[in-house]
Amino acid sequence: MKKAFSWLGEHGVAHRFHDYRKDGLDADTVRGWCAQVGWKALVNTRGTTWRKLSPEQQAIGSDEDAIALMLEHPSLIRRPVLLTPAGELLIGFEPERYEASLNHAEGGQK
């Protein structure tokens, strides 16, 4: 998160931060994210929260199962989740993707 915030600040990209772990998240938002990138891109299977889940919980059988699990355990969602002005969803911090997506969304202008 710190790297993403720094990158956005250094590149003059205005943004609004929503801490879904503290402030919550609604099912429609998560459902939309899953429709756009798939739940496998969103669920962090390397984190502590994932490792603490039972094998039954980890056996995600459908999008709805994944959505329910992410709503119950928001810390399962990979961070950051960035919605660009063009409507593209960027999961995790990759400077090259940020540069390409945000530069494209601004018409090639920084």
Could you please describe the fold and organization of this structure?
The chain is mainly α. The chain has one domain: Glutaredoxin (3-Layer(aba) Sandwich), CATH 3.40.30. It has eight helices and two strands; from the N terminus they run H-H-H-H-H-H-H-E-E-H. The chain has helices at 2-10, 20-23, 27-37, 39-42, 48-52, 55-58, 63-72, 95-105, and strands at 81-83, 89-91. A two-stranded antiparallel sheet has the order 1-2. Strand 1 (81-83) and strand 2 (89-91) form a beta hairpin. It is elongated and about 45 Å long.
- The secondary-structure element order is HHHHHHHEEH
How many strand units? 2
How would you classify the quaternary structure? single chain
Helix run count? 8
CATH homologous superfamily title = Glutaredoxin
The strands making up the biggest β-sheet line up spatially as 1-2
CATH architecture: 3-Layer(aba) Sandwich
Q: Give the CA-CA distance, first to last residue.
A: 21 Å
Overall 3D form: elongated
EC number: 1.20.4.1
GO molecular function, one term: arsenate reductase (glutaredoxin) activity
Pfam family, one: ArsC
Family: Belongs to the ArsC family.
